[in-house]
Structures are given as structure tokens and as C-alpha cells.
Amino acid sequence: MDYLSEYKSKLRSAGEAAALVKSGDWVEYGTGVAFPKLCDEALARRRDELTDVKIRGMLCYGPIQAVECDAEQRHFTYNSWHLTGYDRKLADRGLCYYQPMLYRNLRWYYDNFLHVNVAFIGAAPMDRHGYFNLSIATGNSRAYIENADIVVIEVLDGLPRVFGGQEECVHISEVDAVVEGEHAQAIQLPSRAPSETDAKIAANVIPYLCDGATVQLGIGGVPDALGAMIAESDLKDLGMRTEFATDAFYKLFASGKLTNRRKTIDKGKAVFGIGAGTQDLYDWVDQNPGVAAYPISYVNNPDVIAELDNFVSLNSCVGIDLYGQVSSESAGTRQISGTGGQVDFLTGATKSKGGKAFICMSSTFKAKDGTTRSRISPYFNSGDIITSPRSQAFYVATENGVANLAGASTWERAEKLIGLAAPEFREELIKAAEQQRIWRRSNKL
Fold first, then answer.
1. List of residues 6+ apart from 255 with CB closer than 8 A
2. Mean pLDDT throughout 256-277?
3. Which of 157, 184, 130 is nearest to 9 (CA)?
4. pLDDT tens digits along 322-375
5. The domain 196-435: what is its CATH number?
6. What residues does each domain of the chain span?
7. What is the chain's alpha carbon radius of gyration, rounded to the nearest angstrom?
8. Which residues form the catalytic set?
9. What architecture is the 3-179 domain classified under in CATH?
10. Is the Cα dihedral 70, 82, 277, 118 positive or negative?
């Protein structure tokens, strides 16, 4: 087959691709590092020709020109499945609307309820067989592509080519238009240096891991600290299954700790859905037979996770109340991130033989007024979004220790969580627990 001729016949300028969008359309942008920069810029230039165009995206690192050019939202409305720091600033200005979800259900939403008029998806260049590689945005991309009337691929030369278990490619025959152009280096997201508190939390979690465990790490200081500590520990033959690949996993691999040899499924493969990091991460996953990208519907499926013995999930949160309810995505009514896969991995870990799911947080935080406040509160009452219900609470870790809430009664939960709180807040938490009738007077911390 002459795929190159077909490719050339579908080449369009970014302006021609943007012209495919009509007023009232739903437009899909590629996830994270697959953001279609040229198509977005061209769409922004059409602002005054269009009305009521709805854009969906996820983990955008910015800028989004179609949003920035229309502060009054007369032409474009932006919606996100998961907010980055950039998205959060847009949301604070009323320019980004969060779409609640369970990440494992993303494909289900599109297959059953959502329609895409035009999808602008970033991908690595076409190979000689006619396939574009969906790279480290594999987890979401085909859900968008297969439910779109028009598919536009924006070629991103800097993306690694990632081998896949499923859905890592799109063929030229499935594509309506191809856009080429100059792009900067793939987005670089260096890990931030873990704080002293992050390191203490990670040190509390490490004893719960065992040789051969398969690990999911979320994003942030604690996962980065844990990755660094594991790299220096005596643990061996760890496995990787994560929705979001970061440099923490690359460092585990580089230290020799990550081999995937003892996984009960996907043996020998480091499995992920999407990712972002530094060039070290991109070079590691590039054409590496030991790494496999899968759709999120597979990566985050609790029934599949359950097939992995000793599966350990590590995620963070904003706060937790004395009932064990976990808030991980908002500060009051202010949306700051998203549900992501936290509930998926909590559920999967509880089904895994020897599995454990950790929710990690510092016991305190600094408020905007400079005061120190407890992340453990008597109850949520300020519009905080509950990400994980108390019925699914498992291990909770702070710098003060680890507590397992599974099967615990209300008074047991209160006692365990107050034991994880900063000492200066424990007495007032006890008083609150007494008023809420979830404290046994005979208990002592």
C-alpha cells in the first residue's frame, strides 16, 4: 500500500484543519503532551467567525489560545477532565469547567454519551506501515478518535514512540487530515524536590512494600520521595502499573529495582496510560519492549488490577475528615485537580491479594493568611468535594504514622486519624469527635 501518497493527500495547514470546526461543535484536544498547539492557535484566529464551540481537554500545560483569546466566552467554552496548575488558573477566572469522572470510565462516557465533532490529536510521525503512534497520550486518545466525526492528527516530532498493549496507534486510513509544523521540545516536567515532610511520609510507607510488589504512584512530592527511597532500599523486582508515568518510575528502573519480572499479569512490562516528565522518561519509554502503553479502561480497571498480587497504590489528598471521607480535588468549592484514578486504584487494591492502597498527606498546611491548619478535620462543611467515600478508605499516611481504616467503626476511625494529626490539633479534634458522638471516653492516644 502506498501510505505516503495517502498521507500527502491528507496534509492540510493548521488553518485548513481549524476551518473544519463549525459553530456549536464539540472539539476534542489531545491529552497533556499531545496538545495540538498549531490547531489551537488556528482555531483561536477564527474566533470572530464562531459561536458556542465547546472544547474538551485534559491535563493541559498551556497556553490554550482559544481560551486566552475569548475571556468573555462568547465563542469558546473550555472543559477539562483533570486540571493542571495552568487549568486551575483558568478555572479561577471562570474560563475552565471541570468534568467529574471516574477515570476508568472515560471510554464508556464517550462510547455511550458524548459526541466529538472534530478531534485535534497530537501524535508521533507516521511509520512506513501507515501508523501514527499515540505515544504517552495512548490512555485516552482512541476514545476521542473513535467517537469523532472528523479526526485531525497534528504531528509532534518530539514525542517518543511507545510500544503498546492496546490502542497505541491510529492508522492513516482513520484520519481525515494531517497537520505538520514546527514545535518546541516535548513538554518537560521535572520532579520537584521532596520536602522533609514528604520524606517522612514515604519512610512510613516503605515498610508496607515487599519484593515483587506492583506499584502505582500518583503525582507529587510523596510519590517522588517514595520512588527515591525505593531506589536506595533493599526491595527488588518491583512492577509498574500506573495511569500516569513520571520520572519516579524511570529512577526506579535506572536503580535496577523495577524489573516487572514477578507480575502475575503483563509480566515483564511496565504498564501505563499517559505520562509526562523529563527527557529521561521520554528516552526510557521510546521503543522500549519492556514498556507498554494501554488505554485507561484497561490500566485502571479494578478487576484487572485485582489480578496483580501485592498491588500497592499511592495517592495524595487535600484533606480527610474523622469519618474517613477523602477530599483530593478541591479546596472548598475551588476545583484544583480532579478525581483521576484514585477511586479506581483504591478499588483495585482492595481486590488484590496482599494489596494496599495509601492516601498520603502532610498533617498540616499553611493557609493563605499564614496560619497553620490541620488537614484532618472533624467533618467537611465548606463545599469540599468528596473524592473517595469513607466506605472505601484504606491506609492513610502522614508524617506521624500510618493507619488502616478498612472495616473500622466511626470511633476507631476517629481515634486512628487523630493519632495521625499534628499534636497541637489533637485535643480540639477529640472535642469535636465527642460532640459528633464518635469518641470513646476511655480512649487515649
1. 230, 231, 232
2. 97
3. 130
4. 999 999 999 999 999 999 999 999 999 999 999 999 999 999 999 989 999 999
5. 3.40.1080.20
6. 3-179, 196-435
7. 23
8. 243
9. 3-Layer(aba) Sandwich (3.40)
10. negative
